[in-house]
Amino acid sequence: MMTKMEMQYMDAVIQINRRQRNNEVDWEQRRYEIAKGILCHGYDRMQYTTEAFTDFDTEKVKLAVQYADALIAELKKGK
Question: Rounded distance, CA 76 to CA 69, Å?
Protein backbone atom coordinates (compact mmCIF):
# COMPACT_ATOMS: atom_id res chain seq x y z
CA MET A 1 0.00 0.00 0.00
CA MET A 2 1.30 3.45 -0.96
CA THR A 3 1.41 6.39 1.38
CA LYS A 4 -0.43 9.58 0.51
CA MET A 5 2.85 11.29 -0.35
CA GLU A 6 3.82 8.47 -2.72
CA MET A 7 0.43 8.68 -4.42
CA GLN A 8 0.78 12.46 -4.87
CA TYR A 9 4.25 11.98 -6.30
CA MET A 10 3.01 9.33 -8.71
CA ASP A 11 0.15 11.59 -9.84
CA ALA A 12 2.61 14.43 -10.44
CA VAL A 13 4.87 12.18 -12.52
CA ILE A 14 1.93 10.98 -14.59
CA GLN A 15 0.84 14.57 -15.20
CA ILE A 16 4.36 15.57 -16.28
CA ASN A 17 4.51 12.63 -18.69
CA ARG A 18 1.17 13.61 -20.23
CA ARG A 19 2.36 17.17 -20.75
CA GLN A 20 5.57 15.99 -22.36
CA ARG A 21 3.68 13.63 -24.63
CA ASN A 22 1.47 16.50 -25.80
CA ASN A 23 4.41 18.95 -26.06
CA GLU A 24 2.75 21.24 -23.52
CA VAL A 25 4.95 23.78 -21.78
CA ASP A 26 4.73 24.15 -18.01
CA TRP A 27 4.77 27.95 -17.98
CA GLU A 28 4.70 28.21 -14.18
CA GLN A 29 7.86 26.09 -13.98
CA ARG A 30 9.48 28.18 -16.71
CA ARG A 31 8.51 31.36 -14.83
CA TYR A 32 10.21 30.05 -11.70
CA GLU A 33 13.35 29.03 -13.59
CA ILE A 34 13.65 32.38 -15.39
CA ALA A 35 13.11 34.46 -12.24
CA LYS A 36 15.58 32.29 -10.33
CA GLY A 37 18.13 32.71 -13.11
CA ILE A 38 17.73 36.48 -13.10
CA LEU A 39 18.19 36.66 -9.33
CA CYS A 40 21.17 34.30 -9.33
CA HIS A 41 22.84 36.24 -12.12
CA GLY A 42 22.43 39.51 -10.25
CA TYR A 43 23.81 38.14 -7.00
CA ASP A 44 26.51 36.10 -8.67
CA ARG A 45 28.04 39.34 -9.90
CA MET A 46 28.32 40.65 -6.32
CA GLN A 47 31.09 39.81 -3.90
CA TYR A 48 30.14 37.03 -1.51
CA THR A 49 29.96 39.11 1.63
CA THR A 50 27.40 39.45 4.36
CA GLU A 51 26.50 42.79 2.78
CA ALA A 52 25.46 41.04 -0.44
CA PHE A 53 23.06 38.78 1.43
CA THR A 54 21.52 41.50 3.60
CA ASP A 55 20.88 43.59 0.47
CA PHE A 56 18.41 40.96 -0.80
CA ASP A 57 14.96 42.55 -0.80
CA THR A 58 11.48 41.87 -2.11
CA GLU A 59 11.71 44.58 -4.77
CA LYS A 60 14.45 42.64 -6.55
CA VAL A 61 12.35 39.49 -6.37
CA LYS A 62 9.31 41.28 -7.79
CA LEU A 63 11.40 42.74 -10.59
CA ALA A 64 12.80 39.31 -11.50
CA VAL A 65 9.26 37.89 -11.68
CA GLN A 66 8.15 40.82 -13.87
CA TYR A 67 11.03 40.16 -16.27
CA ALA A 68 10.13 36.47 -16.32
CA ASP A 69 6.49 37.30 -17.08
CA ALA A 70 7.53 39.64 -19.90
CA LEU A 71 9.78 36.99 -21.43
CA ILE A 72 7.08 34.33 -21.22
CA ALA A 73 4.56 36.70 -22.84
CA GLU A 74 6.93 37.17 -25.78
CA LEU A 75 7.58 33.44 -26.04
CA LYS A 76 3.85 32.72 -26.12
CA LYS A 77 3.40 35.21 -28.98
CA GLY A 78 5.70 33.11 -31.14
CA LYS A 79 3.24 30.19 -31.24
Answer: 10
